[in-house]
Amino acid sequence: METIMYLVRHGETEWNQIRRIQGHSDIDLNEQGLRQAEQVARRFRGETIHAVYSSDLSRARVTASRIADQSGSTISTRSTLRERCYGQWEGLTYEEIRARFEAQDETACGIETFEDMQQRAVNALTELAKNHPDEAVVVVSHGGLINCFLHYVTAGEQGTGITQIDNTGITMFRYTDNRWEVLQVNDTDHLGI
What we know:
Blueprint: E1 2-9, H1 14-17, H2 31-43, E2 51-55, H3 58-71, E3 75-78, H4 94-101, H5 114-131, E4 136-141, H6 143-153, E5 170-176, E6 179-187
Parallel strand pairs: 1-4, 2-3, 2-4
Antiparallel strand pairs: 1-5, 5-6
């Protein structure tokens, strides 16, 4: 038995555009992000999708709702699919972080560790895969979570610090015999770029 999982990054937000850290902050899609959500939804038209899951943050939920509309599915939201929590850094640009927190430890700022986020991602996605044997599921989440999962599956050859995950980029995995395999990384053909 195998599960096919499409991990989709949410559409663009204003904070993505200006490189402001979002984390758990609930930021809406901008107009470009709404267009991207429609484009990625059309990509799934005609595909057999058995379930759509989403982070509970609106940028992911709205993207997922467009995909669910095309596939005739309903959305189930999970807080475990959220982006990394960035604590006091949320809402700041990288320049602002360097100026305010130059010598401060990340944990002192309330930032979720990479290892904790990665374990959360692995647990959540493996549970979903086990709940959908011989099915295809779409999971709409966030660049950081998708990249840390990709890092886990490839033992660090891809993912965090190496791989760019674009807004509405699709990264495809297969789960079979209790192990994950990468089938495709950051497919953006639906955006025409």
